[in-house]
Specification:
The chain is mainly α. 36% of the residues lie in helices and 0% in strands. The structure holds flavin-adenine dinucleotide.
Length: 73
């Protein structure tokens, strides 16, 4: 989380990385997965979130939301 903070990533009140349920943070091109998101802290959850983040990254690279200000998170 400290590294994310240095990048300017917003945190929740509980100190976890704030993300949009598709693992996008407030910084375009920075995604989260795993324990840093809070919730269930288990290996299978972290791996699933990593896979989900990878899918989102792929979609975003195909259709970059940061080039459309009205759809930015
Ligand atoms: C003692 C213990 C027992 C557990 N037992 C189980 C279990 O039986 N089953 C289960 O499902 N879960 C278990 N867990 C939880 C599980 O380990 C975590 O949920 C899982 O590892 C989360 O994965 P992650 O990738 O989010 O984080 P991590 O596995 O913690 O990976 C984060 C990585 O980032 C690295 N890192 C941190 N900061 C930086 C930085 N600034 N620069 C570069 N690298 C950095 C760290 O060194 C680490 O390698 C256990 C946890 C603990 C502590």
């Amino acid at each position: 989380v400290a590294l994310a903070q240095k990048l300017g990533v917003q945190l929740t009140q509980d100190g976890y990385i704030r993300q949009d349920q598709h693992h996008r943070t407030n910084i375009p091109g920075v995604y989260s997965a795993g324990d840093v998101e809070g919730g269930y802290k288990q290996i299978v959850t972290a791996a699933g979130q990593g896979a989900g983040a990878a899918m989102t990254i792929f979609k975003d690279l195909m259709n970059p939301y940061w080039k459309k200000p009205e759809t930015a998170p």
